[in-house]
Specification:
With 437 residues, this protein is of the alpha/beta class. It has a domain of 172 residues: 3-Layer(bba) Sandwich (FAD/NAD(P)-binding domain). It is built from 10 helices and 18 strands. The strands form 3 sheets. Strands 1, 2, 8, 9, 10, 11, 17 and 18 form an 8-stranded mixed sheet that branches. It has an 8-stranded mixed sheet with strand order 5-6-4-13-14-15-12-16, sandwiched between helices. Strands 3-7 form a two-stranded antiparallel ribbon. Strand 13 and strand 14 form a beta hairpin. Helix 1 runs parallel beside helix 8 and helix 2 packs across helix 8. It is globular and about 60 Å long. The two termini are 39 Å apart.
Length: 437
């Protein structure tokens, strides 16, 4: 199966708009013969290429991306580097080991990123002191009780907060309860991936705007690009749901399109109305609820739409319509800031599977894949990328074993039934969202 050269939608909206222009690397326009090729330069691909370079310092590692770094999901998420995942519903006794496995993967990715940010002096507003999980409506409050029980069972350090404490911390009276988990980091995601890309080891060759259009059979593997052919001993796909464009996992993952908005920078008096914390993040305990940040540069970001949109970004016109939803949700939380305008808006696409699992391992001879993070890709994608480099190199580790233990993916029907099923699957996350939207 082949991909079209123009099938990778992109724009510069969102976190990238808050940063200086970056000097992109040139597209690949000449044939290459290399031992290793990584396709996709998001968090998974960057982590994979970095680890391969460490394991094989004598080899040139080729890293290709269809877009420019930061223009896909790795630079468009809300910047939560999760250590502890939320699992909906009551704690299932037979799943406790699985909860622990997934959180080990999260923590491995968090530790890796923290080390890389520090060692490479990456200026990305990295702040590792946790964030809030919040609830306003009936459904989310029920999940709150389940979540507290889950945290107790797993012995995760946390601080439950009532309505008054939530208001004193975040400056909103909407939330009835919440909890602060002490581990986890907040980050400017576009700045993070820029820094990771610009600090790659010397034996990694990054080429942006270089989509792979076809992955050949056999050994070595031939990759066809628009202006070049790459012959490689091993290839690792770090393209998340877009692996389907090359014929991999095309019945197991789809893309859900999310959208959010940033305010302008808040003035001092406006900041003082937001409680005691100078920077924070809040994730709704309802899967369809809003995700909020007060950023280090004094903006509020809000993300509260998710839809099946053919796995592509929203147009400017569509994004403007979604901003009316963001506005209503913002004013409901911060009526004291109702006159503060939004300055930027953005959309992004996350890869989701039918049963919430991840994908890791060998797809066919000399072709490996890691992806499918269901909205938790910053820490988990980093861990999966590092682990798939180890696995393809014959190395073992606890993280490799944990990634290999991911549940098999649940099959999705082909199009057009896939489009219908995906629409229903994404839409279902808003059931009974109520005040938390």
């Amino acid at each position: 199966m082949t991909a079209a050269c123009n099938s990778f939608s992109t724009d510069r909206h969102g976190w990238a708009e808050l940063l200086p222009e970056r000097q992109f690397t040139p597209a690949l326009n000449n044939d290459q013969r290399v031992p290793w090729t990584v396709v996709g330069a998001g968090l998974t691909g960057l982590a994979c290429a970095r680890r391969l370079a460490e394991l094989h310092p004598e080899h040139n590692i080729l890293l290709l991306d269809a877009r420019c770094v930061g223009q896909a999901a790795s630079g468009r998420n809300s910047g939560f580097v999760v250590a502890t995942s939320q699992f909906p519903g009551a704690v299932a006794a037979d799943q406790v080991d699985n909860y622990r496995r997934i959180n080990r993967i999260n923590l491995a990715g968090l530790e890796l990123l923290g080390t890389q940010v520090a060692e490479n002096n990456i200026d990305c507003q990295w702040r590792r002191d946790g964030f809030h999980h919040v609830a306003a409506g009936t459904t989310a409050l029920k999940e709150y009780q389940h979540f507290l029980n889950y945290l107790e069972v797993l012995e995760v350090e946390h601080q439950p907060l009532d309505k008054r404490a939530m208001h004193e911390s975040l400056g909103t009276r909407l939330y009835q309860a919440g909890t602060h988990i002490g581990d986890g980091a907040l980050v400017q995601p576009a700045a993070l991936v820029y820094g990771l890309a610009d600090s790659l080891p010397a034996n990694v060759s990054l080429h942006e705007q270089s989509p792979v259009l076809e992955v050949g059979q056999g050994s070595p593997v031939k990759l066809r690009l628009a202006t070049a052919t790459v012959t490689t001993d091993k290839v690792i796909l770090a393209m998340n749901f877009e692996s389907a464009s090359l014929g991999f996992l095309n019945s197991y993952m789809v893309g859900s399109t999310l959208a959010g908005s940033f305010t302008r920078k808040l003035e001092q008096q406006e900041l003082e109305s937001l409680g005691s914390l100078t920077e924070w993040g809040a994730i709704s305990l309802h899967s369809g609820g809003a995700t909020l940040r007060l950023t280090a540069d004094h903006r509020i970001s809000i993300r509260n739409t998710a839809e099946y949109h053919g796995s592509v970004l929203l147009t400017d016109h569509e994004l403007a319509k979604r901003q009316s939803i963001h506005r209503a949700a913002f004013n409901k939380r911060f009526p004291q800031l109702a006159e503060v305008p939004f300055e930027f808006g953005w959309s992004g696409v996350e890869g989701i599977s039918r049963n919430g699992t991840n994908f890791f391992g060998r797809q066919r001879t000399n072709v490996y894949l890691a992806g499918g993070y269901n909205g938790s890709g910053v820490s988990r994608g980093t861990a999966f990328g590092t682990a798939i480099a180890d696995y393809a190199s014959g190395e073992t580790s606890q993280t490799v074993s944990d990634c290999l233990a991911s549940a098999p993916g649940a099959w999705m029907p082909p199009r057009p039934l896939l489009d219908i099923a995906a629409f229903i699957r994404v839409r279902s996350r808003f059931k009974d969202v109520g005040l938390d939207r």
